[in-house]
Specification:
The structure is a homodimer. Chain A is an alpha/beta fold and about 350 residues long. In chain A, about 25% of the residues lie in helices and about 25% in strands.
Amino acid sequence: MSDNCCIVLDRLVEGAPRPEDFRLERRPLPEPGAGEMLVRNLFASVDPGSRGRLSGRASYAPPLRPGQVMEAQTVGLVVQSDGGRFAEGDLVAGALGLREFAVTKGRGMRRIADWEQPISTAIGIYGTPGMTAYFGMLDVGQPEPGQTVLVSAAAGTVGSAAGQLAALRGARVVGIAGGAEKCRYLREALGFAGAIDYKAADDLADAIGETCPDGVDVYFDNVGGVILQTALGHMADGGRIVICGQISQYNREGTAPEGLVDPHPFIYRRLRMQGFVVFDYADRFEAARREMRGWIEAGRLQFREHVLDGLERAPEAYSGLFQGENFGRGLVRIGELA
Amino acid sequence: MSDNCCIVLDRLVEGAPRPEDFRLERRPLPEPGAGEMLVRNLFASVDPGSRGRLSGRASYAPPLRPGQVMEAQTVGLVVQSDGGRFAEGDLVAGALGLREFAVTKGRGMRRIADWEQPISTAIGIYGTPGMTAYFGMLDVGQPEPGQTVLVSAAAGTVGSAAGQLAALRGARVVGIAGGAEKCRYLREALGFAGAIDYKAADDLADAIGETCPDGVDVYFDNVGGVILQTALGHMADGGRIVICGQISQYNREGTAPEGLVDPHPFIYRRLRMQGFVVFDYADRFEAARREMRGWIEAGRLQFREHVLDGLERAPEAYSGLFQGENFGRGLVRIGELA
C-alpha cells in the first residue's frame, strides 16, 4: 500500500499564517489495532478557528507543536475496521487532520447520513460551521420576526448560514462582507435586506446606520476588532451580541487586543453579549441537521464551497482564509470516493 | 403654610460632584390642581445613578439643567388630594426630588404597604435598589447552588442585597468593598464566604484568585473600571457578568472609558455579559417585595441605612457617595411623619 501524505506544522506561526509555516511529509501507513479503524480521508477543511493552536500558547485546546499534523475536520471512508465503532465502507466525519490516512478509535466521529450530499457538507453546512451558525444565531442570538440582524463575515460559511437562519425566523438581515462580489451574493442569491462592503465603505458607522435605521437587535460577530466596536454603536435596546469568532484578532497574539467593548451602554441599552462553544450543543446536533436538511432541500438555505484539489494545497488555502480570499467553505479534496 | 425648601442643581457637574454644585432654594408652596396631590416628603435618597443626568449630556434620561430640582427617590405623605390617585394620609413612594413639598398626579408612584418599616425601606430594600439587586442577581445573574458569586461595591445598598440574595440561592458569595469595616460587615454580619478590601489588597487579581479558587460563576458589577477588568480574568466557564452599575466611571465623562472588555475570552469561556434597567421588571416588583419581606422578617436579608438629618445635607451626602463614604442606603430625612 501507499505511504501516507500529511501536512504538518513546520514552525510556530507568528502573525498571519503563511504556506511556508507548513510542510508536506510522507509517513508510513498506520495499522489499526484492536478496536481501531483505518480511515482514508476524502475532504478536509481549513478553519480559521485552528489559528489559536498554532502559536505555541495554550488556549481552550492544547497548542500544536512543530512536526504535528495540522488539525482539520475530515470526511473519510473506513477502509479497514478491527472491531472499531464503524464498519468498512462507512463514510465518517471527524477531525482526523490534514492527512490521507488516519487510524482512529472513532471518538467524536459520526457516520454521515445518506442525504448529506455532497459528502463534504458533513463538515460544512451539516458540520461544525453549520451547527455554529444554527446554535449561535437561534439559541444565543434569538432573533425575532421583524427584528434587525447584522452579521459580519456574512459571506463566510458560518456567517451566510447564520444570516439565512435569522431570515427564516422572520428577521431582516444585513451582512457585512469584503468586496462587491460577496455583497452581491448576499443580496441577490441569499436575499439579504442589505449588504455592506466594509472594504469600500467610506464610513462603516454611517453604512450600518443607513442599512439598520431602527438599530441592530442581534449582532452576530465573526470578526471582532473595529467592526465589532462600530456595530456596538448601533445596537437597539435589548440587543444581543453573539461573539462567534474574532478572525480579525487571531493573528494579533501578543499585541493589545482591538475591539474592546465599553460595558457602560450595556446598562441603558439593556445589551447582552455572549460567547459560546458549539460542542456544548452536541446532543442537539442531529435534530438541527434534520431541520436544516428541510430548508436546504427546499432551497431556503444555501451554501457555497471553495474546494482546492489536493492535500498539498491546504497550506495555501489556509493562509488565504486570513486574506479574505475564500468565498465559501474552505476545503481540500484529498481523494475520490471510488 | 410654610414655603418649600428645594435642593437645585446650581451648575453642571464636571468630574466628582461637590456640595457647591447644588444650592438650597425656597420656593412658594405649590397648589394641587384637579386630579393632583400635594405630598410632603419625609425621606429622599441620594443615588449614584443620578450622576448621568448632571453633566448636561443626554443619556437614557434627559439631562437636568441648572435651576432644576435635583432628582431623588422619595417617601412622603399625601397632605392634600384633589381627586388624585391617592388619598390624604396615604404614604407614597416615588421620585419627587429633593424638596419638602411636591405636587404630582402620582404617575409612577405607589402607596407603600404597612409592613414596609421603617418607611424609608420603601425607597431602599423595598424600592429601586432592592429591586435592582433582586432582578439583577436572580434574573440576569442566575446563580446556582454551590456556584461562586463575586459582587463589587458589596457593602452598598444594591451590592449587599445582591450578595445576600445569591447566598439565599445557595451560592458561595465573595464581596469586594473598600475598607476593613465594610469587609468585616460582609463576613460577620452578612455571612459572606469572603470579602476583599480593594483599598488594602496588594494585588486585586491575586485576592480574587485566592477567594474564588474555582473561578467566578457570576460577577455582579457595580463599579466598572479596573475592578471589572480584573474580575473578568477570573471567570469560570459559562460565567455571567451582570453590568449593574459603573460608579467608578460616572465622573469620567468626556475621557476614555476604563474597564473595556476583551470579547475574545467570551468564546472559549462561554461568557455572557448583560446589562439591564430595573424598571423593565416593574410588573414583578410587588411579588419580589413580598418575597423579600419574608427573608427580611426571618433575619435572612439585612440592610443598612445611612441617614443624614435635614434636606440641606443632601449635597454633602451626594458627594460623599462618590468618595465611598456612605455605608448603607444614602438617605436624608426631610421631615417627621407626625
